[in-house]
Amino acid sequence: MTRKITRRNSRLVAAGAVTVVGALLLAGCGRSDGPTGGGDAGGGEAIDDSPATGTVEVWAMGNEGEVLDELAAQFEEENPDVQIEVTAVPWESAHDRIATAIAGGETPDVTMLGTTWVGEFAATGAFEATPEGLVDESAFFEGSWDTAVVDGVAYGVPWYVDTRVLYYRTDLAEKAGLEPPTTWEEYTEFTQGLQEAGAEWGVSLPPGGFDSWQYVTPMAWQQGGDILNEDGTEFTFDTPEWEEAFAAYTSFFEEGIAEPRRLEGGEIEAAFINGEVGAFYSGPFHVGLLLEQGGEEFADKFGVAMVPGEDSRTSFTGGGNLAVFEDTENRDASWKFVRWLSQPETQIQWYDISTDLPSVQAAWDDATFSDDPYLSVFGEQLQDSKAPPAIPTWAQVSAVIDQELEKATRGDTTPADAVAAIQQQATSIGTGQ
Fold first, then answer.
1. Structural element, H or E, at residue 60
2. CATH of 10-163+317-386 among 3.90.180.10, 3.30.565.10, 3.40.190.10, 3.90.226.10
3. Which residue positions does the secretion signal occupy (predicted)?
4. How do 279-282 and 165-169 pair as beta strands?
5. 204 forms bridges with which residues in the sheet?
6. pTM
């Protein structure tokens, strides 16, 4: 039986939010200048298994903030002397609210973070490093765990994950006699075939602009390219892998395969359901939206598949992490709550409440995920998903990629010139480390 997935569109937007706490990084806000520990943990004294006590204030964003109370009530039942106070924070104001709280020394105990915010805020010294032994990092998807690690130190843990897969019209693919693509060459043939079968546009891709880096960057990863060199000191945009990624991406616009406009929330669902667009990339929340808006009869007209690739089929991974502030007045209970939220059985319950996908791999063995035709594909894709480096300047650098990609899809620059410009500007911005 297919489980409906209902999500808000804000999650992946939050994962790539573009704002910076530059003043905090410069001033340090009176906090320590470096990590509180070494390795993948080191946040001080280990957390024991005794019941949690006292009050824990948690900030959670978007839908998570609205429904976390339901799950927190179960933790309170298991720990009668603890009280979890959840404050729901809109994604639109979350970044600035956290920055203001850090600057003013008025932070909660625990906060949820978009994955690309971790490096930026960790550089302020505001978070405690994850206590050694709190969780087993190997229990998490590698790409997800990496979003919590800055300079070899983990700050908090991944709470839920998102990744992108290819949504496609199965009826059009069947009419064209095509199976979902696994390579770039097949991807081009597949999307052209969807057009020949009736779609006006074979695929919808962001033609640059906000967070479009999330769509082109995996194409560099798929060839072995990356954002930084191995020791994390230099950007590596001006490379054959990045130039080829830009060339392959822009070819869909040059050949009239990709919708030239950027379709926003609401538009992409309508265009896909009416057959105007044959394929697009998105996270799991779109399954529920399509089933709701397309009706029961549409369930047999679309499917999802892992992203096509070259040497690999790597996709982008985002999601939400949980971090504990250095200034918490209830350190032990805060980490105990974070640890409890990271347990497989808790994450399965959390999915039933929020439809957030588990960051812990063992949770995916549950039939809820393994037997679902949509969710099982996301689970497979998470085995080959990656996040950008957790550096304080990533918001600035990614904005440059967005800008140059828009120029390239419009034909105002070449792929070679685009990646050269990104390299030059990124080098000027620096890694902030």
1. strand 54-61
2. 3.40.190.10
3. 1-27
4. antiparallel
5. 280
6. 0.87
Q: In this structure, are residues 132 and 345 in contact, taking their beta carbons and an 8 Å threshold? A: no
What is the pLDDT, as a whole number, of residue 264? 84
Pairing of strands 153-154, 110-114: unpaired
Residues 6+ apart with CB under 8 A from 172: 193, 194, 197, 198, 199, 275, 278
Q: Low-confidence residues of the chain, pLDDT below 70?
A: 1-43
Place of tokens 């956290």: 98
The C-alpha atoms of residue 92 and residue 114 are separated, in whole angstroms, by 12
Position 42 scores a pLDDT of 58
Judge contact between 172 and 275, C-beta under 8 A: yes
* Domain residue ranges in the chain: 10-163+317-386, 165-314+391-429
Residue whose structure tokens are 């709550």:
337
The superfamily in CATH containing domain 165-314+391-429 is Periplasmic binding protein-like II (3.40.190.10)
Dig out the tokens for 218 from the structure: 């995996």
Determine how β-strand 110-114 pairs with β-strand 54-61.
Answer: parallel
Residue 26: CB atoms within 10 Å: 9
In the three-class reduction of DSSP (H, G, I as helix; E, B as strand; rest coil), residue 21 is classed as coil
CA–CA separation, 210 and 304 (whole Å): 24
Grouping H, G, I as helix, E, B as strand and the rest as coil, residue 5 is coil
- pLDDT of 284 reads 92
Cβ proximity of 89 and 60 under 8 Å? yes
Residue 38: the pLDDT is: 35
CB 113 within 8 A of CB 323: yes
Please give the pLDDT value at position 259.
95
